[in-house]
Amino acid sequence: MSGGIDGLVETVLDTLRTPLGLLGVTLVGYQLGRWLQRRSGEHPLVQPVLVAVVVAGMAITLLDVAYDDYRSSTELVAFWLGPATVALAIPLHRQADRLRGFVVPLVVAVVLGAATSIVSAVYLARWLGAGEVLQETLSTKAATTPVAIALTDSLGGIPPLAAVFAIVIGIFGAMFGPATLWLLRVRDRRARGLALGAVSHGVGASRMLLENETEGAFAGLSMGLTALAISLLLPVLALWVF
């Protein structure tokens, strides 16, 4: 009897180690996060992405699966991130009339925000004693993950670590950003979306879509513009800060 149970457990574990099994674990983790978020009344601190990361991390650790194997098994999720990002243009199209009289402040805010993000990250890391490689890696934190990886690689930083910084900052920005903006008395829906999208990328944009469609639309716009601004500013600022 014991041998039969052990065999069944081993069969289940082997199934979970397959590409389909690892993909299923990731999706189950995210759905668990969504369920918890709904149960909490859509509370910002309950982030489905964070729950999915914890579940996936625990799973590959317990199953003794290498990260490279996990990443290759879940490429389907990474593939759909592209179309999901493009789909953020739909709410922006619906809110196009809200751009009137806001284009110039929007562009100025994005450019200044991107420059501030780069310079503050580098000098804060330097003040804390971080080496130049880590400073270069942190400088791209406000860009979306693919852009952060590419820029960090061109600077000579650590691309995988840049991806970790971008994802972690995105999650924590989505968790604490809405409350912070409320405490700072930022009430304009466009400004709120612009601020969180610039910091928290896709995670922040999805969070703001739950708050308000206008906020979500401007968060999606800010995410793309911030990545573009950092890509253009970083090569110039790198000559000064490094």
Description:
This protein has helices at about 1-15, 20-40, 50-60, 65-75, 75-85, 90-95, 105-125, 130-140, 145-155, 160-185, 190-210, 215-240. The radius of gyration is 20 Å and the shape is globular. The protein folds into two domains: about 1-85, no CATH class; about 90-240, no CATH class. Helix content is about 80%, strand content about 0%. The protein is built from twelve helices and no strands. By secondary structure, it is mainly α.
Short description:
The protein has helices spanning 2-16, 19-39, 48-62, 67-73, 75-86, 89-94, 103-127, 132-138, 145-155, 159-183, 189-211, 213-241.
Strand content: under 5%
What's the overall geometry?
A: globular
From the alpha carbons, calculate the radius of gyration and give it in angstroms.
Answer: 20 Å
- Helix and strand content put the structural class at mainly alpha
State the total count of DSSP E strands: 0
User: Are there runs of 5+ residues with pLDDT below 50, and where?
Assistant: none
Mean pLDDT: 86
The main β sheet shows up as: none
Written as H for each helix and E for each strand, in order along the chain, the element string is: HHHHHHHHHHHH
Q: Helical content, roughly? A: over 70%
Total domains: 2
N- and C-termini, Cα separation:
66 Å
Q: Number of DSSP helices?
A: 12
